What we know:
This protein is 31% helix and 31% strand.
Amino acid sequence: ARNTTTSVLKGVKNTMMLKFLLAACAVEHVSGFVVQNGRRGFEVRGISTPNFPSRQIATMAIDRGSRAPPPKKENLLVTNEKIRLQSASVRCVMAMKANEPDEMLGIMTLDEARKLAEEKELDLVLIAEKSDPPVVKIADAGKLQYAAERKKKANLKNSNNKDIKEVKLSYAIGDHDYQVRKRNAMKFLSQGHRVKCLVQFRGREQQYMDLGGEMLNKMAVDCAEVCSGADKPKREGNRMVMFLKPKETK
């Protein structure tokens, strides 16, 4: 049976969005913006249809995604009974204390390695599945997971900190502006960043591409104190580009 319903559609900002939402519903009345429970929206009086009831339309409008807490991070390590290998034998190592090398326990069957891990009250962790034979380690899986996450964060931090910096020049740049850009390039290089030096040309300026190459070569010579090398200037469309590489820090 058809019934008349009244709903407040949240998240609808204008009448155009409202028309799309109510395309499958026969609407009797649409008022302007109204406030209900401290939230603004459209008040809609419509007749629900069997395939597309008004209540469903209202739900679509106010659904702003799940508010459930984010899922917990899953353990990416393959451990204990979850280890499934086609190989009949594995190479087993024993994790030792910090700053000590792992102890090589030799080649044994997977069941023997599991039994040994149980005797030590530790986990059996799959390290290298594609090795011949596969490598497993007897260790605390929680500590391995924590160490792997810390290493991943450190690598990500280093990669973000040592990105490519850009210095823009002009073929007719003044001496003061050139000195400012040279100081910036040297600062970036001393921090361990690669520096992309470019000279951009507009319209008829492209006939001075040679001057742009000379400007880039001058920058490479002036930054030689903190630069380990520079690529040959090359043309990219209406730009001349050159990369400066920082000196490796010990």
